[in-house]
Amino acid sequence: MSKSLDNKIALVTGGSTGIGLAAAQTLAAQGARVFITGRRQAELDAAVASIGKAATGIRADASVLADLDQVYATIARTAGHLDIVFANAGGGDMLPLGAITEEHFDRIFGTNVRGVLFTVQKALPLLVDGGAVILTSSTTSVLGTAAFSVYSASKAAVRNFARSWALDLKDRHIRVNVVSPGPIRTPGLGDLVPDEARQGLFDALASQVPLGRLGEPEEIGKVVAFLASDAASFINGVELFVDGGMAQV
């Protein structure tokens, strides 16, 4: 039985945990061969094992351009091209305006903005005409969040990348879309607060979601696979919120 992504080659940055891992698992389940990146070898190896023989792990920091060059050299050598790029690597932590440091800003924008930009730019020679690029933004791109302004601003930048790049790449018929999760039960979300405060954070966020719960990484993975597939062939430049209604009502 054919699958929606049979014979497609995909890259997922930040694919060793959370949303990236769930997306990589879903892409592979739909028939794609998936390359994933991550900074920590142990987590990367575990992710590859969980995805199966369709996965290849490449240790890389998406904010380091030399690492990205190695990622694409590996893909060029072993696969020859790319059909799908999910530029997902990112993260952030919380600081109020009065406490923001240069290091905080540079680290978050280095991965979430600079890293996303060069992940996509450096993919272009390998990306087939008619391919799909998916970027990870967040409900914070349109909502104010106390002590989270640098992360939120970085995700607003990602959303505009998709608008602009859809035009830059129109002659190649490459679709560029954004998935914007609400609060998702991932290690990164839990790590925003000390362990003892984690459940309180989850409960507070769930109370802001009309569906009354956090999302699960697999729910984002399904949307990424949809945006990568021919089922989304006329969807371009959109921000698709997967947030249980949090930023919609």
List the helices and strands and how they pair.
Layout: E1 9-12, H1 18-29, E2 33-38, H2 41-51, E3 55-59, H3 65-78, E4 82-87, H4 102-123, E5 127-136, H5 149-168, E6 175-181, H6 187-190, H7 198-207, H8 217-228, E7 239-242
Structure in words:
The chain is of the alpha/beta class. The protein has a single domain (9-184, 217-242), classed as NAD(P)-binding Rossmann-like Domain (Rossmann fold, 3-Layer(aba) Sandwich). The protein is built from eight helices and seven strands. The protein has helices at residues 18-29, 41-51, 65-78, 102-123, 149-168, 187-190, 198-207, 217-228, and strands spanning 9-12, 33-38, 55-59, 82-87, 127-136, 175-181, 239-242. It has a seven-stranded parallel beta sheet with strand order 3-2-1-4-5-6-7, sandwiched between helices. The longest helix has 22 residues, at 102-123.
The total domain count is: 1
Number of strands: 7
User: Ends: how far apart?
Assistant: 40 Å
Provide the residue-averaged pLDDT. Answer: 97
Low-confidence stretches: none
Strand proportion, as a percent range, falls in 15-25%
Q: Would you give the CATH topology?
A: Rossmann fold
Give the class-level CATH name: Alpha Beta
Shape: globular
CATH superfamily: NAD(P)-binding Rossmann-like Domain
What is the ordering of alpha helices and beta strands? EHEHEHEHEHEHHHE
- Walk across the major sheet and give the strand order: 3-2-1-4-5-6-7
Rg result: 17 Å
The largest pleated sheet is described as: 7 strands, parallel
The number of helical runs is 8
Q: Helical percent range?
A: 40-55%
| CATH second-level architecture | 3-Layer(aba) Sandwich
Structural class of the helices, strands and pairings?
A: alpha/beta
